[in-house]
Amino acid sequence: MSRNMGGGRYSSGERSELADRVVRVNRVAKVVKGGRKFSFSALIVVGDMNGRVGAGIGKAREVTEAIRKGMEVAKRNMITVPMVGTTIPHEVRLKLGSARIMLKPAAPGTGVISGGAMRAVIESAGIKDILTKSHGTNNPINTVRATLAALQQLRTAQQVADLRSKEIEQIVGRRLANAYRRSDGAEPAAAAAAAAEVK
Fold first, then answer.
1. Which end of the chain is flanked by fewer CB atoms within 10 Å, N or C?
2. What is the DSSP letter of 41?
3. How many CA atoms lie less than 13 Å away from 2 in the CB half-sphere?
4. Per residue in 58-72, pLDDT tens?
5. pTM above 0.70?
């Protein structure tokens, strides 16, 4: 099982459909009577590139063992991200601790406009077109947690309509409702473009 410490994409041997990414490896030194004891903590993001993503932190005396533990935690804590075509259903802003993030849908072809730890989460979830911004903290652990919390707040128009016992046309209008219906079939790009246009 090969791993790239630079944060590249690679497959785990246990479940080939999941791609995992090392966001950060941190070395911790504990000073004891005989000298220093070193241990490592690894922040791992795991996703199936199709709407499911999770993150976990592993701690161990060896880097490889810390990464393995982080992957196990991430797989246990995966969430499902609702998507419209290649983007997200609507804009979301979230403050979690000192992290303040914004996720905004984008038209097809925009790509992932993001950086650092947020990019790892978004790409692992399989989102292809999105605009993001992160304020308040550079800590990748807090940024990853805030990004996952924001993705959990997303709801599709159909989910909102079901919660309110209404038709989807009453929530978003006839034009956008037709685009959402096409996204379930053969034209996901039309719904993504329409959602981005409405925003």
1. N
2. E
3. 5
4. 999 999 999 999 999
5. yes
Tokens 């303040």: give the residue. Answer: 100
The dihedral formed by the CA atoms of 105, 74, 146 and 124, expressed in degrees to the nearest 10: -20
Helices (H), the chain: 63-76, 116-125, 140-152, 157-164, 168-172, 174-184, 188-198
Tokens of 143: 């940024």
Q: Which two tokens stand for residue 181?
A: 């219906």
Taking alpha carbons only, the member of 160, 3, 151, 159 closest to residue 66 is: 3
Question: Helices marked H in 83-167 — which ranges?
Answer: 116-125, 140-152, 157-164
pLDDT tens track for 50-101: 889 999 999 999 999 999 999 999 999 999 998 888 888 889 999 998 899 9
- What 3-state DSSP class applies to 78? coil
